[in-house]
Write a structure and sequence with these properties.
Elements lengths: L7 E4 L5 E5 L5 H10 L107 H37 L1
Antiparallel strand pairs: 1-2
């Protein structure tokens, strides 16, 4: 059996195949190839998919199910994720600059250190979302209250992370000094 004997498929939430390839080694590569070819992935069901580090620039995931998917350090620059379910997804360090995530659901998602600069986040749900160090520079929000809440969570998360680093450094210094005695 050869290396590329398996066919990877991207299906929508109704089970219809949106894209398939037997020229890739993983679902991640299949999704990257679909995006590279400009495939419309409306309604794609990639729940729980591991897309860590994937290059998905200009991806079209309108109304997709990306619940619990791993997009850590993925490039989603200029992607369309409108009305997408990103509940409990990991987007830590992901680049969503200039992305449209309008009406997306980020409930309990991890957006730590994600870049949403100039992203359209109007109507998106950020309930219980981790946002330590998230960049919302020039992002488009529905109103100032939501914007201020997101920015406050980002600042609080960064402060907590900085406090933890300081405490860790202090503990290491104390341990080193104790060893020298």
């Amino acid at each position: 059996m050869g290396l590329f004997d398996r066919t990877y498929k991207i299906k929508d939430t109704d089970g219809k195949t949106l894209f398939k390839s037997n020229k890739v080694e993983s679902l991640k590569e299949c999704v990257e190839l679909a995006v590279k070819k400009g495939t419309n992935l409306v309604g794609a069901n990639l729940q729980g998919a591991d897309l860590k580090g994937a290059n998905l620039e200009r991806a079209y995931f309108w109304e997709a199910n990306l619940k619990e998917a791993n997009f850590e350090n993925a490039n989603l620059n200029n992607a369309i994720l409108t009305a997408t379910n990103l509940t409990e997804a990991n987007l830590e360090g992901a680049n969503l600059e200039k992305a449209s995530v309008r009406n997306a659901n980020f409930t309990r998602a991890n957006l730590d250190r994600a870049n949403l600069a100039e992203a359209d986040v109007i109507g998106s749900n950020f309930d219980n979302t981790k946002m330590n160090g998230t960049d919302f520079t020039d992002a488009i929000f529905l109103n100032d209250e939501i914007k201020n809440d997101c920015l406050q969570k980002t600042v609080e998360g960064k402060k907590a992370a900085d406090d933890a680093k300081i405490a860790n450094a202090q503990a290491m210094i104390k341990a080193a000094m104790t060893k020298q005695k």
